[in-house]
Specification:
By secondary structure, the chain is α+β, with helices and mostly antiparallel strands. The protein has a single domain, classed as Cyclophilin, CATH 2.40.100. Helices cover 28% and strands 20% of the residues. It is built from three helices and twelve strands, in the order αββαββββββββαββ. The protein has helices at residues 3-56, 133-144, 238-247, and strands spanning 111-118, 121-128, 151-152, 155-157, 163-166, 191-192, 196-199, 212-215, 219-220, 230-236, 255-256, 263-272. The strands form two sheets. A ten-stranded antiparallel β-sheet has the order 3-12-1-2-10-7-8-5-4-11. A two-stranded antiparallel sheet has the order 6-9. It starts with a helix and ends with a strand.
């Protein structure tokens, strides 16, 4: 074999080696691109799961008001249910009317009747100012200032805890009426029988404000030692709450917006005279 032939053979050998190296480099580059895409997808999925958990998880308190950043709100869904006797709810207000905390003396020792007119009918409440004067004074003042007008009942729980939560004009995303106060008349045994009217709050025992809940089936909240302020009872219209509860939670969850939308249109309060 001549030197020229040897050089040609060596050249061909080198070309094959270079081709193999180039192929390996192309495969490595493709693998890197795939890895980047997979990583990006995993990041997106992780972000979605995180948000879903934050927005859709149950609150650590059974009926939390919106001022707590540590207790995320239950998620809502577009799923709705038709319930007999209900009309379309009004648009959710865009602002809250802030005001000062009323003196509890305005309700101390008094009993009030509150007629809560909703898009599904009237719910009548009896408010006990003797046992919960500050809570009742607040509720009465908010009602008389039209604070609750068009406020949606934004939360329904259907497993273990059986409550319909209302009172925030912004549907659970507001910051309250501009004040907060502490607990009153909490049951020592943590039992909340059907028909009880109580205040919602965050983990802060001094966070009572505007949100309240109606218990539509016997509920044990003894897991929260401090409890929730009971300030009245439902004396009429419980069937409305029950049919909203029977329609379930939007999206099929056990804690979230009611599938059958219910909103407070107005609240009329009168003092019961002895």
């Amino acid at each position: 074999m001549t030197k020229e032939q040897e050089r040609a053979r060596a050249h061909r050998r080198q070309e094959k080696l270079d081709a193999r190296a180039a192929q390996r480099e192309r495969e490595a580059a493709r693998n890197r691109q795939v890895a980047v895409v997979v990583a990006a997808v995993l990041v997106v999925v992780a972000a979605f799961v995180f948000l879903a958990t934050r927005l859709g998880g149950d609150d650590t308190t059974p009926a939390a008001s919106p001022s707590a950043t540590s207790t995320p709100q239950a998620s809502t869904s577009a799923t709705t249910a038709a319930v007999a006797g209900c009309t379309a709810p009004p648009a959710v207000p865009t602002a809250i009317k802030t005001q000062g905390l009323p003196a509890k003396a305005t309700a101390a020792g008094k009993t009030f009747t509150a007629v809560v007119t909703t898009n599904c009918g009237d719910i009548t409440l009896q408010l006990d100012g003797a046992k919960a004067p500050q809570t009742v004074a607040s509720f009465v003042a908010l009602a008389r200032s039209s604070y609750f007008n068009d406020a949606p009942c934004h939360r329904l729980t259907t497993q273990g805890i059986f409550v319909l939560q209302c009172g925030d004009p912004l549907g659970g995303t507001g910051t309250g009426p501009g004040y907060a106060y502490g607990l009153e008349n909490t049951p020592k045994d943590g039992k909340y029988p059907k028909g009880i009217l109580a205040m919602a709050r965050t983990t802060d025992v001094n966070s009572n404000a505007d949100q309240f809940f109606i218990v539509y089936d016997d509920t044990d909240l003894s897991s929260v030692p401090e409890g929730y302020s009971i300030f009245g009872t439902v004396t009429g219209g419980m069937d409305i709450v029950e049919k909203i509860a029977a329609a379930g939670v939007s999206g099929g969850a056990t804690d979230g917006a009611p599938a059958a939308p219910i909103s407070i249109l107005k609240v009329a309060v009168t003092e019961k005279k002895a």
